[in-house]
Amino acid sequence: MRIRIYHASILTMEPGKEIFQGELCVEDGKIVYVGEERDGREETWDREIDAGGNLLLPGFKNAHTHSGMTLLRSYADDMPLQDWLFKQVFPMEDKLTEEDVYWGSVLANMEYLTSGITANFDMYKKIDAGAKASADMGFRTVLCGSINDFGGTVQDVEQEYLHFNQYHPLISYQIGFHAEYTTSRPLLEELAALGQKYKAPVYTHNSETKSEVEGCLERYGKTPTAFLDSLGMFEYGGGGFHCVYMSEEDLQICREKGIWVITNPSSNLKIASGIAPLSKMLQKGIRLAIGTDGAASNNCLDMFREMFLVTGLQKAVCLDAAVMDALEVLRMACTNGALAMGLVDCDVLAEGKCADLVMIDLQQPNMQPVNNMAKNIVYSGSKQNVKMTMVNGKILYEDGRFDIGVEPEEVYAKVTESITRMKKE
Amino acid sequence: MRIRIYHASILTMEPGKEIFQGELCVEDGKIVYVGEERDGREETWDREIDAGGNLLLPGFKNAHTHSGMTLLRSYADDMPLQDWLFKQVFPMEDKLTEEDVYWGSVLANMEYLTSGITANFDMYKKIDAGAKASADMGFRTVLCGSINDFGGTVQDVEQEYLHFNQYHPLISYQIGFHAEYTTSRPLLEELAALGQKYKAPVYTHNSETKSEVEGCLERYGKTPTAFLDSLGMFEYGGGGFHCVYMSEEDLQICREKGIWVITNPSSNLKIASGIAPLSKMLQKGIRLAIGTDGAASNNCLDMFREMFLVTGLQKAVCLDAAVMDALEVLRMACTNGALAMGLVDCDVLAEGKCADLVMIDLQQPNMQPVNNMAKNIVYSGSKQNVKMTMVNGKILYEDGRFDIGVEPEEVYAKVTESITRMKKE
């Protein structure tokens, strides 16, 4: 499939490169040209798209989510965290079948596409179903190990690591576990050894709530970051999801070990966890990426909301409107997300890179006038502006229509069927 | 024009009334029927719309904004507040012509429509241009007086009050001034007398920043709310825009005098003002409504973003996921906003009320599954879900297309022309 997109504004997200007018060409899933418009070349294309001046940029990367959880969207909200988790979420999750997770993941991937997201970093149970959902519809997913004391062994993680990194071109896998507070020390030690065996980064929920950090301090006399690091967990880097409550020492460890902080601002607000000190992290040279978290806690899988909050919350908390520049936030969403997940060929628009990209519709009231495209996207953008989302050279979403091998109505019927059954069980 | 919308889910927002399946009929700008579906009635309609199960609810009310300011969207961001205001915004605003404000207001109204907003409470200069923009396109606007020491007299406000309350069925006017810190005591005393003369509420920016409150305390030994109240400003109620820094005494005054608090969470984040104590206000029985503020400070005129933030920020600040229930937030956006602006016939869907309403597209990934429609809207909704926006019985926006007497492209060209000229001047 060879596609040429011309008359486009292009933001490649390569460092220092400004927005320019030009064309971008795609062949067999890769970008084969991005640059000035080339007139008079005799080439045949399967499709030529006049972008009409609209903006191409690398797709957003949802660097932390739980896709199968979409079934529980708006199922239980506005209640205290412990009740929400233990009385509502966990009992329902126990009822999930492979098929439930499959359709929940398809639904999540559809929503990602509507928000210009071209890849997700997914931590969920029944991992085969999630992987199959993405592979079937052509969506790019990095799976994340999620074992803990209540399910899974380190041998499972190793097997998944070997299996899913060979499973499908759109699927990959990173070593991970649920969290320090749900995983015993022996299991954590084994996981650290596994990471070292494969010279691989390790990912986990980290310091999401204050009580989680206090619990770890009681158990081990160390914060989660310091404790996990002391086990050799981050010898090859890795990442922490949330990182709301981080000590100076924690931040120092993140910087030294190159541990990604993957922030989830909407979720942290909605389930009352707090606000992560991102501005401080940025000043300390810590690498930041952005995730939506799952639909039970957010409830919206929308990178535009997250981008605004990443900068908006810091401005309010620091009482300084100058912190967290919009372009920096766009870099987190497009580029850093890819690097955090190990998708080193999905970070920018350049020849040889994967054709994972989004076209932003500037012909909408909220994008006008165009005083600054990047700021318009971060501060004013919404799903309504996603004109087209391409993953691996294939257009999966365009002008509100999906090309994912299944009709939306069927997906909505399937998830409704699943949740209806689960509520009755 | 007689329109019947059937096969609809309907949330009238009348107290205690649940969502039901039915139809809603509109004639000459008013709702003439809302209830169970009536089969077999022989009536002719100019248009019958099959809602396909999608949700009808009262339009959102943007209870504080500066529409003409859209020209400055993304013109100056990520900079300290004082520099932003005095070096960037004010000098540019001095260059605005009537025509600039007209087209900026048309653009803002278009964006309101895309977000399901059916009325705005607008405070801006060159008020004739803003009023004309709304009247021309069929949008409902309540104008708010904005005088201060740098422009306008109380006689102007009185004249505007008499003029614009007779000007056009879609336009009304409320007495207002910019803020305590920009308006001298004699002017404020005159304004208070004007409010009393007409037994009218008075509206103003109030306690948006900490320094504003400190300044007032230095000048008068009182907070802005207490000082203005001591002048007799709120004898017939009124409202405060922002109200981020409010003392216990301030809240007591708001409750006793029925002063509306109109919150603008995105703007308060982005220009680093802070987070208003809404949950506390609610507990004290203070009436709350929601605004977007202007596009130079937000930069997005989107009620979905504001609704999420109204509840999300309170949950995080109070560290309690149970505060600010979604339905309460929806009431602020749909019903309270109308009442705060004096639009007593635009608050709920009921016979005899104005046909100002929105249809929410539930056939989108972010609205599925439908565990709870109200929570889906507040926590997961976005502009992409606005299928139709009707003002005064006329459909102004439907399936991404506008019916406002002017083509979007022309509006975008006009605002681009304006801002380009202003940058050169």
What are the SSEs and their pairings?
The structure is a homodimer of 425-residue chains.
Chain A: E1 2-10, E2 20-27, E3 30-35, E4 47-50, E5 55-58, E6 60-65, H1 81-93, H2 98-114, E7 117-122, H3 127-137, E8 140-144, H4 154-164, E9 171-179, H5 185-197, E10 202-206, H6 210-220, H7 224-230, E11 238-242, H8 248-257, E12 259-263, H9 265-270, H10 278-283, E13 288-290, H11 303-318, H12 326-341, E14 357-360, H13 373-380, E15 386-391, E16 394-398, E17 401-402, H14 408-424
Parallel strand pairs in A: 1-4, 1-5, 6-7, 7-8, 8-9, 9-10, 10-11, 11-12, 12-13
Antiparallel strand pairs in A: 1-2, 2-3, 5-14, 14-15, 15-16, 16-17
Fold and architecture overview:
The structure is a homodimer of 425-residue chains. The first copy, chain A, folds into 2 domains: 2-58 and 348-402, Roll (Urease, subunit C, domain 1), CATH 2.30.40; 60-341, TIM Barrel (Alpha-Beta Barrel), CATH 3.20.20.140. In chain A, strands 1, 2, 3, 4, 5, 14, 15, 16 and 17 form a 9-stranded mixed sheet that branches. An 8-stranded parallel sheet of chain A has the order 6-7-8-9-10-11-12-13. The first copy, chain A, starts with a strand and ends with a helix. The first copy, chain A, has 425 residues and is of the alpha/beta class. Helices cover 38% and strands 22% of the residues of chain A. The interface between A and B is large, with 74 and 74 residues.
